[in-house]
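Posted in: Structural Biology > Protein-Ligand Complexes

Title: Requesting predicted complex, S-adenosylmethionine in pocket

I'd be grateful if someone could produce the 3D structure tokens for the following input. Sequence and ligand are given below.
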Amino acid sequence: MTDTSPYRALVAHYEACLARHGDTPQGVDWPDAEGAATRYRIMAEVVRERDPVDLLDFGCGAGHFLGYLRQSDLKVRYRGLDLSARFIDLCRRKYPDEGFDCVDVMEHGAAVPEADYIIMNGVFTERCGVAYETMFEAMTRLLAKVFPRARKGIAFNLMSKHVDWERDDLFHVPYDRIGHFVVSQLSRHHLIRADYGLYEYTVYVYKAAA
Ligand SMILES: C[S@@+](CC[C@H](N)C(=O)[O-])C[C@H]1O[C@@H](n2cnc3c(N)ncnc32)[C@H](O)[C@@H]1O
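-- Reply #1 --
Done. Output follows.
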């Protein structure tokens, strides 16, 4: 399996969700609108500054986070990126004035757009039949490519191990394992948040201490 093929499997899954459920939370495979809104709030809270910042929404799906930002009082210069042409076409139709990239950043020569903050909401929560270790390796390679492009920090979410039961189609990662990777490969300035009532957690990784 190549570096990029796990993501192709995931993207095929999300495109099938879009075909089935249309432009809704379920169309990006979030179970409900309330949980999705909670995730957008937690992702937005990675930003430490009150001044406007550049934010890259990596794996932007149908652009629902941009919808959330426009209803909030956050000052963000937004850019979206997704591997799926179907999702990017949809975003460009919905938001013709915003910038969206359809790119596989793991392809040779492809670059991750630079931003103050890069959020990756739902990029690593499901593994859809991809072997666990293949998914872990693909995730860490992608994070190692993305983090240097963030001037201030990144946020991403993973499924918790502290659940009543684990699902084989989801990606449950122990805190210690992701913590070891983050500290040894990205930055020791990180925060793990599991205080928002969902069966997942969000990792903020910063370039500098608070
Ligand atoms: C669960 S959906 C979440 C969409 C959006 N972030 C949201 O929360 O509304 C995950 C998205 O990540 C995209 N994705 C997965 N792997 C990717 C990769 N390696 N590069 C870019 N996009 C990716 C999928 O195409 C899909 O649109």
